[in-house]
Amino acid sequence: MKKLLENRNVTGWLMVSPLAAVLLLFLVMPIVLIVIVSFWRATEFSIIPAFEWDNYAFLFGSPVTYTVFLNTFKYAFITWAFTLVIGFTVAYYLAFHIRSLTWQIALFLLCTIPFWTSNIIRMISWIPFLGRNGIANTTLMSWGVIDEPVEWLLFSDFAVILAFVHLYTLFMVVPIFNTMMRIDKSLIEAARDAGASGAQILWNVIIPLTKPGIMIGTIFVVTLVMGDFITVRFMSGSQSANVGRLISNDIALLQYPSASATAIVLLATVLITIGILLRFVDIRKEL
Amino acid sequence: MTKFTSRTGLSRRALLKGAASTAIAAGSTTLGAPMLWAQNIKDVTIRQFGTGVSNLNDVANKVKEDLGFTLEMTALDTDSVTQRAATQPNSFDIADIEYFICKKVWAAGNMQAMDTSKIANYDKIAGTFRSGLLTPTSTIAQGTAPHTVGFTSGPNGTDFVQEESGWMTLIPTIYNADTLGIRPDLIGRPINNWSELLNPEFKGKASILDISSIGIMDMAMVVESMGEYTYPDKGNMTKEEIDLTLGIFTEAKKNGQFRAFWKSFDESVNLMASGEVVIQSMWSPAITAVKSQGVPCVYQPLEEGYRSWGGGLGISAALSGLELDAAYEYINWYLSGWVGGYLMRQGYYSAVPETSKEFMTADEWGFWYEGKAAEGDILSPTGDTLAGAGEVRDGGAFLDRMGSVVCWNSVMDENQYMVRKWNEFIAA
Amino acid sequence: MEPRPRSFYVLSAFFALFVLFLYGPTLTIGVLSFQGEGGGLTFPMRGVSMYWFYDLFEQQAVGDIWGSFRRSIVLGLMVMVTTVVVSVMGGLAFRKKFAGSGILFYLIITALVIPSILVSLGVGLLFSQSGLNVHWSTSGFGAQLTWTLPFGLLIMFAVFNRFDKSFEEAARDLGASPWQTIRHVVLPIIAPSLIGVALFGFTLSYDEFARTLLTAGSYNTLPLEIYGMTTNVTSPVLYALGTLTTLFSLLIIGVFLALALVSKRRKARAGNDAGKAV
Questions:
Q1: For residue B15, what pLDDT is reported?
Q2: Candidates 3.40.50.10420, 1.10.3720.10, 2.60.120.620, 1.20.140.10; correct CATH number of A63-286?
Q3: C-alpha–C-alpha distance, residues B132 and B137, integer Å
């Protein structure tokens, strides 16, 4: 018995058993079930076990699918670009310009407080902020920058991207900050001694070393944007769609099989994207 | 600040079997039945879910006061309500749903038929829900009219029958006639037709609701009003008609006609109150909510008529015994007037207007039902001023409004096709 | 202290703008929660009052804020405790590279990247097809764990990657059993990160919406309840709730920082305690 417990495989599995159980029950089995259901048929209110390719056929045959997937990628890409630039700058500031750990933590916490207010309430508040009579427009008008309220601040792609950047920049900041903290400061000193300017240090030393952090942040941001449906619906005034919306619309109308089919295609897309990104970073080592 | 002051100071309850619904001013919370029954009923909890329209905490409080048992309410949006009725039969006892949702989910068998002989006020229920005729000379509107999905063949029936069979799917409680809501101050001219929704004058300032079963009907009204097409039955379109309707709206959407679409009551109020939108599909209480913020808003009667909807209470198939009796008790109480009066003072119509009348002042009855000018201020049940003296309800009397209903919220035969096309419209 | 380079001020300004951006909605909510009695969820303001704060504690026309708030807190705490325990155990286990750990690792990554609505749909289907009832403390709990556990584990992996094994070796040399090593050496050292994991776990659960949408059962958590309320209620009481939550979290963090400062000072005063145990 003691020998058994000393075997690192056995102890290893014993310790991860709750984790494995949760993942098995709440991740693996649901996915398997979704795959199965995607082949079923649906009526108004119930689903019937069957095996037919109808749902997938419809999905791939409809031009809407392609438009919507393209839209999803578009949002993901633009959000990624913005969060990268903003996130990198903020992380750089926190890692290299803030001296004490206490202040770093304090500033971090300052950034996370807005997220303690319910997401839903925050989304409702964008309307008074960005709307025709909202704070943004009235401020701009009182400064004389514009004469009429700007319409595209709200219920547009701009609003969607703005909300995404607002929500997910921190997910980019944290991994990049993490990697930056591990950079050996003596490397930077050496570069400076060798005569490099600030910009050169940034480009040749810091950025290459933070690549893993950037990769991880990218994975977070891209997957979160691709899986979102509420933000898109709300900020575009239900006028824009992404894949998550298709799925949630189907679910709302009890069309579980077609929702499942769309969900599987989305999952496959996300996993492929992540797989590609993971080629560039060995995540286990770089944590 | 009290939210609601009791109208008559008396508590009311209805007797269960046989007797006419007499109002006995007892002020007690027992049922006048054997003490054992009265003792048990206090421990009963009934779980109700529905849209926020009638899932009001005030009702739960009054139930506790008048009937003794606990009513737990959960409010959800329309789509979630449909989902729960269809897939989670053990999660509720009473379903407060619309008739078109009933059409979708009745065949799932999660609800049980109700014996109309146990309903004391059955004869006083408005004709619309029983024979389909509001008055003997009414025409039946297009779409899923409540009486077509209101009756089933027997206690375990999963079908619909077209006569008053004695077994109802839902007991009707509430209905109204819907139209477009407008901001008269921002529009500045009379609006008389549904087609104005797509008028380029309101480009970027229009909205429509993103609930397919209801939105498609509004769209059909607009299309017919524009003279583009006349539908044999708006409530049951063919694939070509669906394509036509959504095609017209998709083009308008691409031209930037719509500012946003709304999915929840709250969003519609915000859009109107903030001035983002000046003309949109709206629900009656949203109009009163906007008005109570001091923003002018009118529920505009239109030439072509109204779209109507009706809702009622259904019982879960899993209910039996003491809880089932309590459920019938609750439904009879619901129809006995207090709730009806409360709902009517928000602008809805109670399915049993006679009993509701006794819970409203003469002025309120005159304003809300008869379409007369108000003599004093008209207050909502929560105390907000909805109209001043001399004002007339938008659209006028009950018979004018409900009499001009031309279609009901519907579930079509081609529903799944319609939903897919609706999704395409949203994604366009 | 060496003087700050000019870039410090530029970047500070940028950071300040960023924080302002993050707080935009929160500030809007703050302003609007003082909305006058007759006002709605948008501008213009109709007077200024504390009315909605009082209203928050009354019964609402529709919805049950405090009941769902209680449920959210309980669920959040459940998730928090479970996440911390399972993450630590998982972190310790993964140091060993046991057979099959690679597959498990990729499952964790999958749990992290899977779109939330899939989890909701899948777990909901699982429960309904097997005839079980969905309930926030079972299906909702499990669905949220698939989101918080990966985060907790990734943090733990990062911590253990940096962990200096020599402390454990020293303890072993002194004759400590594995359990004693964990209890007296490892846990105290990783304690700060555990607090981070706990905080993360609670926050992620408290504000979780998509995964709980189909898995909560008859009784809603707070985000779901708020969502349900927006289908009928349209009053600034939601904003009052939002402002109070923000103030509450500011308070908690303030207390936290004060405690950290006090304990730091106390430790500095007490001096080094090396060698005292002998």
A1: 27
A2: 1.10.3720.10
A3: 11
Cβ <8 Å between B411 and A67: no
Closest chain A C-alpha to C278 CA, distance in angstroms: 31
Residue C226, chain A, CB below 8 Å: the answer is yes
**pLDDT at residue A201, as a whole number:** 83
Measure CB to CB from residue A64 to each of B262, B416, B423 and give the nearest one: B423
ipTM passes above 0.95: no
Asked whether the beta carbons of residue C42 and residue B53 sit closer than 8 angstroms, the reply is: no
Task: Give the C-alpha separation, B198 to B223, whole Å.
Answer: 9
A71: chain B residues, CB-CB within 8 Å: 427
Find chain A residues with C-beta within 8 A of C41's C-beta.
Answer: 124, 127-128
Question: Looking at the domain that runs over B35-177+308-360, which CATH code has it been given?
Answer: 3.40.190.10
At residue B112's C-alpha, the angle toward residues B110 and B117, to 5°, is 170
Domain residue extents for chain A: 63-286
The domain spans of chain B are 35-177+308-360, 180-304+397-427
Domain ranges of chain C: 66-231
Binary contact (B47, C218; C-beta < 8 A): yes
C158 touches chain A (CB under 8 A): yes
- The more confident residue out of B297 and C258 is B297
- pLDDT tens digits, one per residue of A79-137: 999 999 999 999 988 888 877 777 887 888 888 888 777 777 888 778 778 877 777 88
Give the CATH fold of the C66-231 domain. MetI-like fold (1.10.3720)
Residue C42 backbone dihedrals phi, psi, to 5 degrees? -125, 170
Cβ proximity of A30 and C142 under 8 Å: no
Whether CATH 3.40.190.10 fits B180-304+397-427: yes
CA-nearest residue to A247 within chain B is B423
Stated pTM of the model: 0.80
Q: Using CB atoms and an 8 Å cut-off, which of residues 86-105 of chain A contact chain B?
A: none
- CB contacts, 8 Å: B417 with chain A: none
